[in-house]
Design brief:
Helix content: under 10%
Order of helices and strands: EEEEEEEEEEE
Number of helices: 0
Structural class: mainly beta
Low-confidence stretches: none
Strand content: over 45%
Amino acid sequence: VQLQAYGGGLVQPGGSLRLSCAASRFLLDYYAIGWFRQAPGKEREGVACIIGSHANTYYADSVNGRFTISKDNAKNTMYLQMNSLKPEDTAVYYCRADRGILYYWGQGTLVTVSS
């Protein structure tokens, strides 16, 4: 069972990035999914998630209106589209999948927003 996150990198303020997280050996369609991030010296925080049979989405106030979480069940992959990036968005971003007592973390991908 594995979650493989990728797509991070260096981007200028105001720019965009799309993070991807591919699942293997389990189906994302049956899991609640989310993105978290951890900035240097700070605790890990939730960024966005998709929960429930109606695929309700939730966002942290700090990213609401700028980030969009989505998933492609055919590709068994989840995404985080990040627009209007700010220096304070700099962090390692992690994907996570939950189902009951089961949960899996991706390995993290670094996003650096700097000019």
